[in-house]
# Entry
Amino acid sequence: MLDEPNDTELEEELRRVVTQVDSVPAVLVEAAVGAFTWRTVDADLAELVFDSLVDHDRAALVRGTQQGRMLSFQASNLTIELELTGTGASRRLIGQLMPPQRGSVDIRHARNVITVEADELGRFGADVQQAGPISIRFRPDPAIGQAPVVTDWVTI
Amino acid sequence: MEPDEVRSLVRAAAGGDGAAWKAIVERFSGLVWAIIRGYRLDAADAADVFQTTWLRLAEHLDRIANPERVGAWLATTARRESLRIARASSRTVSADEAAMAGAGYIDHHSPEQAVLDAEQAMLDSERARQLWRAFGALSARCQQLLRVLMATPPPSYAEVAAALDMPVGSIGPSRARCLDSLRQMLTDNVSAPL
# Structure
């Protein structure tokens, strides 16, 4: 790439300013190093395949019936649908497992884990008042003998 | 850091090596942060997106198709997640804030303005403040590109392309155009009362 000499000079000046005002906060780097401990090695990954915030085409189809944010995660044998409704202290997470089944659902959020049970229709719910990364880990009924499933992390 | 070295780190981390993970975080934190801040998210949102990006990589370590390109993978993830949250900015707005915004009270204290004010206060010379002000007046696209190019350590062009969702070939010309605009803003600002 050919540079104007002035470009390099201006860029160096800008680099100094950006470094001065906007380096990564050390506390965030520490937290990112700590993210490694949240890793689950024994689970299937359910990848984020739909988010009503960004996937407009499908969102348009459901807009008439849904007001919250809809998220869908897909693993090989399981789909996890989440709906977030309300804001702030009244915000609630409602989940649906497909195919419907019972099991334990670990809601990993705000540096905590809340465990709730999915009913026989595969439904579960919890209050999620804080903003931040969230991920669901589903542990099927041991009688079924299937591996746990974890979703991608998303920011809510 | 060479591609071979990056690939070995990703494979080691996927095998449970915490030191390798730490090395990856330290190598790419600057890039991830520059992308997120290019979306002018407030401090809390930026912190959340940053953490989400790393948590997501932790779960994907043994599933990444090209481990030597983990920087581009992180860049794409950080860009998409920033965009999501930029669109969901209402997620953290309380009822009070929403009411105030509706009544027109909040205009001068938008998160963007608060971020700019805080940043201005950190600079020690008039020239630096002028430069930062001029930078803030650039188009959003130019600010995003220049922030990513200024990341420490400097990213590869493949990582910049993933960060901005643009072809590698247009990075050089865009960079030159954005620096031109910045120079123009500085010239205009010198004579204007600030």
Q: What stands out?
A: Confidence is low (pLDDT under 50) at residues 90-109 of chain B. Chain B touches chain A through 63 residues (CB under 8 Å). Residues 7 and 66 of chain B are 8 Å apart (CA to CA). DSSP finds ten helices and no strands in chain B.
